[in-house]
Amino acid sequence: MRNTLLIMAGALACLAPSASAQTEAEPYAITADNILVDGGEVLQDGLIVIAGGKIVQVGLEADLKAGLHKDMPVLDHEGWLSAGLVAANGSMGLGSGVDDSTSAFTESLLVAESFNGDHSSVVAARKAGVTSFGLTTGRSNVAGGQGSFVKTDGAKVVNLRTHLTLCMGPPAIQSRRYPTSYSGAVNALEKRFAAGEGAFGAVTAGKLGVTIAVGARHEIDRAIRFCQKAELTGTLRGANRAGEFADRLAEAKLTVIMDAPVIGSPKWHTDSINSLAKAGVPFAFGLADSNAGAGSLRLGASLAVRAGLDRATAWRAITSTAATLAGGGKRAGRIAEGFDADIALWSGDPLSPMTRLESVYIDGALITEGN
Amino acid sequence: MHALKLSLSLTAAALLSSAVLSQDEGDSPKTHEATALVVIEEAPTYLIQANEVVVAPGKTIKNGQVLVKNGMILAVGETVTAPDDAIVVQGETVCAGFMDAWSSLGIDPASVAEMGTGATTETASAVDHFTQDHFRVEARNAGVLLARSQVGKDASIGGLGAVLATSPAGAVVLDDACLSFTCGITRSGRRGDVFDRISEADSIGSRIASGIPYRQSLVEYSYELAEWDKAIAEKEEELADDFKKAKKDRDKEIEKAEEKGKEFKEDRYKEDKRPRAPSLDPDKAVFARAAHGEIPVIVEVHGTQELRALLASTADLPRLRLVLLGATHAMPFAEQLAARRIPVIVRPMAAGQPAEPEFKGHDLGLAGRLEGAGVQVLIGSGGSVAGVRDLPVLAQMAVAHGLSEKAAFEALTIGAARAFDIGADFGTVEAGKHAELIVLNGSPLSGRATYVFTGGELVEL
């Protein structure tokens, strides 16, 4: 890490890795050679001011620095500054509590109640620059439960109820419990949405999002038809082949969470990503349906760019769009005034594999050195 | 000495038979035998103009030019003399094509998973560029123009690896690139305890060493045979000089024997003592090549105990050219690796959540730490097919975590080429070498390939 603290005697105390203390601490500023504000927009020689765990000012160093209070600590970073990465979904911190196997319908289950913020998978995520993610159930139930938007430090739940997870394909369809077929699952869900009770009613009333776990082409096709018939706008997750349905997804106003490409991912995966981008379907990368670690988010965005995706869309897929699809878009994923000070400091352009993560801040507090 | 093969598919040209090339030690390109190369139609000449010609790691020419024809580099410099009809190709950078030192590109998947391979198994026998051709095309389009591929990647002895080209025609560049072993890996459900794994590592040295007495017996046989041939020739000469006298003497002796009623006994000739050839042992013949450094020995090994055993069992084989694959826990042995000039082929991947303890520690920083300790680093995609395309990304990740850019570039080019004895023909941008080249819109590691020259063809991307 090549950060150099300027002068201030209290600066180190201010940057101590204690989130609770930090959010109450006095304001401080970070300058960086480049600040990735959102997508492709880059502020050269930029500066942000952080207070109370929030970003309160963003601009050029030349414009803002003179106006800072003379005692404000300023951290100079020789490199890039960006929003912390956001995984559109993930099951980190859930251990074996991803799904409750007692019933195919556990729609009232709150997955945040199983969240362990100290789990090694959560620690690994923040060491990879992931500062928040959409905590979600698995895909073993037809109605799996309600997801949350959480931070990777301190088990903070930003938004307790973000979406209801549904699955109308394997492994939710099992021979030993109802429903035992795809058509049975669709029928059961249609009845529940028609009844409009509980979580299903919250979805139809627009108070709760809906995410449908899919995999194979027929599952994507079935999910699109189901959403159109039930007049639902939601997100298909695990939809790596969604690009083949890009026009239909755009028409149905559905969004997509897919696995980030990894080393050796098939070309159809990146082709699918490019098709979604071309059709204007919002999409983001998630971790819940992939065996890859949290490091796959940034690598995946980089590989997508290498395969032809524009930088802005790729970056948003692991920050602002991911936060929006995960139910935390008003607080995370952007370097903008009013957003949480979830920040990553990089040795260079974060979309380059040659760049190393140097520091991670969550709610303004230094949480970890990167890996 | 390897037999180097490369089929040149020439644009607008036809070959009645392909060139057969071979190499000597050292990096000076030599064409030993170029037979019956008949070009019916003149192949185009290409003039590559680049802001930076990366001749070799650490050696560049600003605003340079490279002249290419028939798949060969004719000239390199700030300005080169080109014919008027030369096709001009422009780019930011031109450099040697990349080589994946650890792949299974172009190999039938069943052969890659084969567990019954032995020392004489040839990877080249399993080349299948057609079933999964898109992988070859993706690799080529990423600038990865050569790949060392290996069958039996999880077998105790994988056999002879091959270097393949990702040119449109596809080609086996070298069919005896290395002798491959694997030890200590939990492979295909075969998990031994630590003593089994140490024993396995230890046996690699003794197996290779068994080739030395075998080679010695062959040499001794060949010497004795030569002596015998010489003695016979001298005897024949002697008999020819005095044939009549010898015949008269023999006739007299026959007469005497008959007079005495005895049986005539011929003098026994030297051919009765003809030296006996040693029993043929193809495995030991391959081990002998390895022991004498004629081909490198690649060993995939990760754990500390196995590494220690392997290094100890091979310490008394001074001509052995050992190369480690993976080598997750190589750092405690880095000093020895550097002193013995043993390169390590790494796959720069995040540790993640490894399934087996022996893979813990195989992180992105290993390449940089090894370089820092003076160990030569090579980079591979980990024995995969699909991952070959992402070789430059792996190199970039290694650079992000401590490997110098120069070492990373060397690992992908001349370092890999030299390790597998094709450095005389590939790996740098020099006149006389094969024009396996990448033209990029940026630096060699992070730029995007816009053209590749491979197998005598220009491919626009």
Structural class of chain A: alpha/beta
Oligomeric status: heterodimer
CATH superfamily of the largest domain in chain A: Metal-dependent hydrolases
Q: What is the CATH third-level topology name of the largest domain in chain A?
A: TIM Barrel
Beta-strand portion of chain B reads: 15-25%
- Terminal Cα separation of chain B, in Å? 36 Å
Largest sheet of chain A, if any? 8 strands, mixed
Mean of pLDDT of chain B? 86
Task: Give a brief outline of the structure.
The complex is a heterodimer of chains A (371) and B (461). Chain A is α/β, with parallel strands linked by helices and 371 residues long. Chain A contains 12 helices and 16 strands.
Write a structural description:
The complex is a heterodimer of chains A (371) and B (461). Chain A has 371 residues and is an alpha/beta fold. Chain A contains 12 helices and 16 strands. In chain A, the strands form 2 sheets. In chain A, strands 1, 2, 3, 4, 5, 14, 15 and 16 form an 8-stranded mixed beta sheet that branches. An 8-stranded mixed beta sheet of chain A has the order 6-7-8-9-10-11-12-13. In chain A, helix 5 crosses helix 6. Chain B folds into 3 domains: 132 residues, Roll (Urease, subunit C, domain 1); 230 residues, TIM Barrel; 60 residues. Chain B is globular. In chain B, helix 7 links the parallel strand 11 and strand 12. The interface between A and B is medium-sized, with 22 and 25 residues.
Chain-wise SSE layout:
The complex is a heterodimer of chains A (371) and B (461).
Chain A: E1 4-5, H1 11-14, H2 19-24, E2 28-38, E3 41-51, E4 54-60, H3 61-64, E5 74-83, E6 85-90, H4 120-127, E7 130-135, E8 143-151, E9 157-167, H5 182-195, H6 198-204, E10 209-213, H7 217-230, E11 235-237, H8 246-251, E12 255-259, H9 267-279, E13 283-286, H10 296-306, H11 311-316, H12 320-326, E14 343-346, E15 357-362, E16 365-369
Parallel strand pairs in A: 2-5, 6-7, 9-10, 10-11, 11-12, 12-13
Antiparallel strand pairs in A: 1-5, 2-3, 3-4, 5-14, 7-8, 8-9, 14-15, 15-16
Helix pairs in contact in A: 5-6
Chain B: E1 3-5, E2 20-22, E3 45-56, E4 59-69, E5 72-77, E6 87-96, E7 98-103, H1 109-113, H2 133-141, E8 144-149, E9 157-165, E10 171-182, H3 194-209, H4 211-241, H5 243-259, H6 282-291, E11 297-301, H7 304-313, E12 322-326, H8 334-339, E13 344-346, H9 366-372, E14 377-379, H10 391-400, H11 405-412, H12 414-419, E15 437-440, E16 449-454, E17 457-460
Parallel strand pairs in B: 3-6, 7-8, 10-11, 11-12, 12-13, 13-14
Antiparallel strand pairs in B: 1-2, 3-4, 4-5, 6-15, 8-9, 9-10, 15-16, 16-17
Helix pairs in contact in B: 3-7, 4-6, 10-11
